[in-house]
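[READ THE FOLD]
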Amino acid sequence: MPMLTRPLTIGTRGSALARWQTDEVIRQLQSAWPGLECRTQLLTTSGDRILDKPLSHAAAGGKGLFTEELENALRSGEIDLAVHSLKDLPIDEAPGLTIGAICSRQDARDVLISRHRRALDALPPGARVGTCSLRRSAQLLAARPDLILLPLRGNVDTRIRKAQQGDYDAVVLAAAGVLRLGLGAHITEYLPLDVMLPAPGQGAMAVQCRADDAATRELLAAIDDAASRAAVTAERAFLQGLGGGCSAPVAAYARCPISNIKYQISMVGLVASTDGKQVIRVMGEGSSPIDLGIELAQQALAQGAGELLR
């Protein structure tokens, strides 16, 4: 085991999901390195402070809301690791930091949770659906232009409760977060990928550390999942090829067979207008995650995605 003179300190947000993800990373690390001592440190991010306040759609999707304070604590040496939902991490790598591990990805799909257990196509005309994601809103409207979309804030359990209490007829959430918290019984429908393509990196956990911390990087290498890293790298390259932190609805999902040593990655990418009336969908295969992502971004731009992104 790499030489450590003190326990490994892992920063975490206070939400139930953030704590679950942090505990899971600790479990994987201690399984790979028996005897490794870990401690957690609770940190509050700007995203946590505004969870129950109204937010514009664009602001709610802002990158860095849930990561900046954790990254600052990493740089200062206050913590050694930070665990993130990968889809929350900005595309550009933070100065002085690196993603030391991407853990094996869970279900990347989105799910519908509805008060009366009705699937998306069975919701009544004009049903009120909660989401603060432009990506989800656009794809919902593409499938059901009659829906009334309403802002939805709060942690996973709060959002589910709002659906059950009748504030909304349904809400859309990432499957991974619902399943990690043991709340899968509330799921009405797993939304098919041809209806709802996920955010780049959705369902994957990223573990960030200091780029110059060789001992910690060696520890993290043991829990890095190569197939998951290849898939999400392609998805994030697609987003970067479109201009990085664009606020337009962008989605991507890549598959990378675990048994394929040379990685033949297949990916679908999507760019849509916010009203869902225009949807550009591209797909392809390749062995280089970054090349595939950029190639599909260029295909989307050639089909008019630039206008939608503006």
Notes: Residues 102 and 206 are 5 Å apart (CA to CA). The longest strand covers residues 265-272.
